[in-house]
Design goal:
The structure is a single chain. It is built from nine helices and 15 strands. By secondary structure, it is an alpha/beta fold. The protein has two domains: about 10-150, serine acetyltransferase, domain 1; about 155-265, UDP N-Acetylglucosamine Acyltransferase, domain 1 (3 Solenoid), CATH 2.160.10. The strands form three sheets. The chain has a six-stranded mixed beta sheet. A five-stranded parallel beta sheet has the order 1-4-7-10-13. α7 (about 110-125) runs antiparallel to α8. It is globular, with a radius of gyration of 19 Å.
Length: about 270
């Protein structure tokens, strides 16, 4: 079958690999040709593909695909940091998720990656003073992906959310770089007070499935939060906390838990 990939006008090893993988997937499964072409092979840049995917997934009867595509394309064109973060998120998924065998998988199939990229567009919109559009995107992401990230939250790059079902990240939450979390994680408040009321997650933190981190507390860099824990107080760097309420049960066990993804507690 003839190769359908576009001409790449700048050196981009990540996007080059995505296109090579898309062509391989097309050769292996021709019935996915239309999907692979419109989502990947039709585009010259990762930014273009992400804007298309954003619009395709979030379009509804209330706001159509063309308008959403224009919004995302404008965001990627105005702020190169969005694409830089997307590349870091893509590599995080590939390196940390054993179910990810190709770069193209997060772009096409992983709702955690897709939801985070949509959040990044919404966060950019909020920064431009377009609050209602940002909140609309938050609402659609919640409906489509079951991931509810307030556009005012501040999230670093290299983020991996595995499975990503029932993720909640509140308005004043801050998430550092190279953080990994699993499904059903909540970064929430503890009451109805306004102001700074959500957790601050340090770089390199691993948050296990079902963990709830509540209130304006700090989780120190390179720490681990065990699955099912409820964290109500600050956590020092490089520690493991577990339980309800969570308590320090030992060291983190490695220099960067979010990368190792080791969730086992020592006996």
């Amino acid at each position: 079958m003839a190769r359908l990939r576009p001409q790449i006008t700048a050196v981009d090893p990540v996007w080059t690999r995505v296109l090579d993988e898309a062509q391989q997937a097309l050769d292996e499964e021709p019935l996915l040709g239309g999907m692979l072409h419109y989502n990947l092979l039709h585009h010259e840049t990762l930014e273009s593909a992400l804007a298309y995917r954003f619009a395709l997934k979030l379009a509804s009867g209330e706001l159509g695909e063309q308008i959403l595509h224009e919004i995302a394309s404008t965001a990627y064109g105005a702020d190169p940091a969005l694409a830089e973060a997307a590349r870091a998120d893509l590599m995080a998924s590939y390196e940390r998720d054993p179910a990810c065998h190709r770069y193209l998988q997060p772009i096409l199939y992983f709702k955690g990656f897709q939801a985070v990229q949509a959040y990044r567009v919404a966060h950019w919109l909020l920064g431009q003073g377009r609050r209602d559009m940002a909140l609309f995107i938050q609402s659609r992401v919640s409906e489509v992906f079951s991931v509810d990230i307030n556009p005012a939250a501040k999230i670093g790059k290299g983020i991996m959310i595995d499975h990503a079902h029932a993720i909640v990240i509140g308005e004043t939450a801050v998430v550092g770089d190279n953080v990994s979390m699993l499904h059903s994680v909540t970064l929430g408040g503890t009451g109805k007070e306004d102001g700074d009321r959500h957790p601050k997650i340090g770089d390199g933190v691993l948050i296990g499935a079902g963990a709830k981190v509540l209130g304006n507390i700090h989780i120190g860099a390179n720490s681990r939060v065990a699955a099912g824990s409820v964290v109500l107080h600050d956590v020092p760097p490089c520690k493991t906390v577990a339980g309800v309420p969570a308590k320090v049960v030992g060291d983190a066990g490695c220099s960067q838990p979010s990368v190792s993804m080791n969730q086992l507690l020592k006996e």
